[in-house]
Design brief:
This protein is α/β, with parallel strands linked by helices. It has a six-stranded parallel sheet. The longest helix has 20 residues, at 801-820.
Length: 825
């Protein structure tokens, strides 16, 4: 259907109105068809770790239920596998389930860099390191698209926080932009070849990402060779015409024709070249053709061949979770547990009610859920009892909650006193990590910490099992015997945890992010989420281990860390410009899997250069039986010996003697070799950048950040006293009094009420409304609010309530009358 010649003919026969219409959605999840020309509608839907196809009312934040689908581990979990092959298999399963439901575009993977541990959507992203994130994203893309379904690499670009995400200006220097925030996308695009890319809500250095010609045209298409379609995030369109010019081909969801009319007028008035619109239409038609195979499958009848084997996919979900579990600590060989371990007490609400995924647009309705408590009881362990130990959402703030936690804690302690070992399940609850909101701190709930203190005081071995999609502070780490982190393991995570705890599986996961001792050790902690209009990336390239290793900062667990039930030895290192070869030997008495990590230290990086001391340049997995050895080859990254030259605006090979380091984490480096690299001498001017040379970037002065940027950054806060416009967000009405203040107050109150009622997901989604630009009120109202009504509402918000009402009433009446009028053919 629609081969190239037919696509060209179809586009040439379209009217201007049809062209404009095609580049915006028909509804929440589908594009518009042009039936007379044989152009079908296609469906785009979430999500990155499981199909979220809604069968009823549509929404983007997971408010309404979706059809059952396999819930795989989230990206933050899969990243700990360091296994592109495994991630590609998960992608194939995702593509299969999408194709079976007639879905053409699956909106994932997410691969933004984990700049700060509090970012609310970190659970959807792979890593703080662009090489690891890029290679895993590329693998998932290949898997999804092998089934004829388009993947959508998102959110392009520098989508680093949820706070004010639809208006935030991410202010970042050119070098960090390319080396840190774009590099993962470059790898995903060049190695995975996605058919779509989703632009992010935020601005990048003053320009909305969806209107950013440099990002969407110069870099994405011309430099990286992207040949697919760019789609907005849902409601992420600011100026539709500017987006088309920059390279955005599809606005989602539908704006009920509001922006279609803007496009038509722009062409008619000469502000938009129709050839630009034609190019965007061609990109959509090409996507329709690419995904024809998936649509041709569609849902099968019971008599036909089953398109989805949910049992097999569940088994894959268990395997993926199992191979991503990270053993952080194992003092005195406490793990694995077995029949020799004696009486085992299972404590913690997460053991019986697993937290296995995040919230928001990626919320999956699973086909089943494995529960760790059930799996442990079915194992050879002597489980003598279970107690929840704490109230799930009790932070110990109120008297009632406090007494509830005290009662649960006492019962848990009494159970522990009868046990020989305690399995303590802790983690972040559903309100902590969600799309649209950032976390406010890096701590576990106070009732969980209080329970942990009482249990460790008993002298009984305590094994902590963590759940959550991002780092937390672990003040008890040295006082417990073992810590196992399952992250958010999807619907099979409970069985996976039991398998690792009992030794049926070796813990093969390695951390894809650094665990700081405390939040204040994170260089962006002083400003993250605290400013209104901009987010200044004053730390530049020093994100995660690049910062901690540069300044020698103690960390709880370094990037790449993870223990095994066996031991590995590295030997016989050979390295050149292209790659590394090393021998790995299993020196223990159990089978296990090692992750060989290769880092490169640039010349002078440790002696006063504006460089990270080491950067991940390659990695490989190897599974070995006891006593087995294998020669492992690791290909080095394309930019392993490069830095981004902001003067020439391109990557540059930096000559000199590089140290290639091989080990088991960024701080467990066991072998080194030197490699001589030729190139044109290059010494960037760092005279005015002393903090960037030293790496002490937690308190960079404004003047030095301006010197790094080459310009004075804009004000970080909203202007005071100016009338709010369509481009401002609802939260800016806070503190203004009148109708605007009342509107914000109502949203705040609704959020608090829903949280008190134990509905944290609904509470977070309610608060999301505060970050909506006023323009979205009309565009996402499905035609219920037009521009005249929106302007009247803005008059009311700006303190002139009755004047706005006098404009709103006739505007509403005119709109209602027009809606009732017969439609012209």
């Amino acid at each position: 259907m629609l081969p190239p010649d037919a696509r060209r003919r179809a586009r040439s026969e379209m009217t201007l109105t049809e062209k404009a219409s095609l580049t915006s959605g028909a509804n929440f999840w589908n594009t518009k068809p042009v039936d007379r020309l044989g152009v079908p509608s296609i469906m785009l839907t979430d999500g990155p770790h499981g199909l979220r196809k809604q069968g009823g009312a549509a929404d983007h934040l997971g408010l309404n239920a979706s059809l059952p689908a396999t819930c795989f581990p989230t990206a933050a979990t899969l990243a700990n596998s360091w296994d592109p092959g495994l991630v590609e298999r998960v992608g194939e399963a995702l593509g299969t389930e999408a194709a079976a439901e007639g879905v053409s575009v699956l909106l994932g993977p997410g691969l933004n860099i984990k700049r700060n541990p509090l970012a609310g959507r970190n659970f959807e992203y792979f890593s703080e390191d662009p090489l690891l994130a890029g290679r895993l994203a590329a693998a998932q893309i290949r898997g999804i698209q092998s089934q004829g379904v388009a993947a959508s690499a998102k959110h392009f670009a520098v989508n680093s926080q949820e706070t004010h995400r639809m208006s935030m200006d991410e202010v970042v220097d050119e070098r960090a932009l390319h080396e840190t925030y774009l590099e993962a996308f470059r790898i995903a695009v060049t190695e995975g070849r996605p058919w779509t890319v989703m632009s992010s809500y935020n601005k990048v250095n003053g320009t909305y990402a969806n209107e950013h010609c440099e990002l969407l045209d110069e870099i994405l298409r011309k430099q990286w060779g992207f040949d697919g379609l760019v789609v907005t995030d849902w409601g992420g369109n600011n100026d539709r015409v500017a987006g088309l010019v920059a390279g955005n081909a599809l606005e989602m969801p539908s704006t009920d024709g509001v922006t279609d009319a803007e496009v038509v007028r722009a062409v008619q008035e000469g502000r938009l070249d129709e050839a630009v619109l034609d190019a965007r239409v061609d990109e959509l038609l090409a996507l329709i053709a690419r995904t024809e195979r998936a649509r041709a499958q569609g849902p099968r009848t019971p008599d036909g061949a089953a398109p989805v084997d949910h049992d097999a996919h569940h088994a894959l979900a268990v395997e993926a979770a199992r191979r991503s579990v990270v053993l952080l600590r194992n003092a005195r060989g406490t793990l694995p547990l077995g029949s020799h371990s004696g009486r085992v007490a299972v404590i913690g609400d997460f053991a019986a009610s697993p937290r296995y995924q995040g919230a928001g647009s990626s919320l999956v309705n699973p086909t089943r859920v494995d529960v760790a408590l059930d799996a442990l009881r079915a194992s050879e362990l002597d489980v003598v009892g279970y107690e929840p130990g704490y109230a799930r959402r009790d932070a110990g703030r109120g008297a009632w909650d406090s007494s509830s936690s005290v009662r649960r804690r006492r019962k848990a302690v009494r159970l522990a006193e009868r046990a020989d070992v305690v399995l303590l399940f802790l983690g972040l609850d559903e309100s902590a990590e969600a799309e649209g909101v950032d976390r406010t701190h890096m701590r576990l709930a106070r009732n969980q910490l209080a329970l942990t203190r009482e249990l460790t005081a008993l002298g009984v071995p305590v094994v902590v099992v963590l759940a959550g999609g991002a780092p937390v502070e672990l003040p008890f780490a040295e006082h417990v015997d073992a810590i196992v982190h399952g992250y958010l393991g999807g619907q099979g995570g409970g069985q996976a945890i039991a398998d690792v705890l009992t030794g049926r599986a070796d813990p093969a996961g390695r951390l894809a992010e650094t665990y700081p001792l405390r939040y204040t050790d994170v260089p962006s902690s002083a400003t993250f989420g605290r400013t209104e209009a901009t987010s200044e990336h004053r730390e530049s390239i020093y994100v995660g281990y690049r910062h901690a290793d540069k300044v020698g900062l103690p960390v709880r667990y370094p990037f790449g860390h993870g223990l095994s039930y066996t031991t590995f030895e590295h030997s016989d290192l050979a390295a050149d410009r292209e790659g590394v070869q090393v021998t790995v030997t299993n020196t223990g008495d159990r089978a296990g899997t090692e992750t060989v990590q290769v880092y490169v230290e640039a010349p002078g990086a440790a002696e006063g250069a504006f460089r990270a001391p080491r950067e991940l340049a390659g990695f490989a997995k190897v599974a070995l039986a006891p006593g087995e050895r294998a020669s492992v080859s690791v290909e080095l990254a394309e930019h392993a010996f490069d830095a981004y030259d902001t003067g020439a605006h391109e990557w540059r090979t930096v000559p000199g003697t590089y140290t290639v380091q091989v080990g088991a984490s960024s701080r467990d480096l066991r072998l080194t070799a030197c490699v001589e690299i030729d190139g044109e001498p290059w010494t960037p001017d760092t005279t005015d950048l002393p903090h960037y040379v030293s790496g002490k970037v937690d308190r960079v002065p404004a003047a030095e950040f301006a010197a790094l940027l080459g310009r004075t950054p804009p004000s970080p806060d909203w202007p005071v006293g100016q009338p709010l416009t369509r481009d401002d967000i609802v939260a800016q009405a806070r503190g203004r009094g009148g109708f605007g203040g009342l509107l914000v107050g109502l949203i705040d109150t609704a959020g608090r009420l829903l949280m008190a009622l134990g509905r944290p997901l609904a509470a977070n989604n309610t608060r999301f409304a505060l970050d909506l630009p006023f323009r979205s009120v009309s565009r996402m109202s499905a035609g219920k609010v037009d521009d005249a009504m929106l302007d009247a509402l803005l008059v009311m918000v700006n303190g002139r309530f009755w004047r706005g009402m006098r404009r709103l009433v006739p505007a509403w009446r005119a709109h209602a009358k027009a809606a009732r009028a017969p439609k012209k053919d």
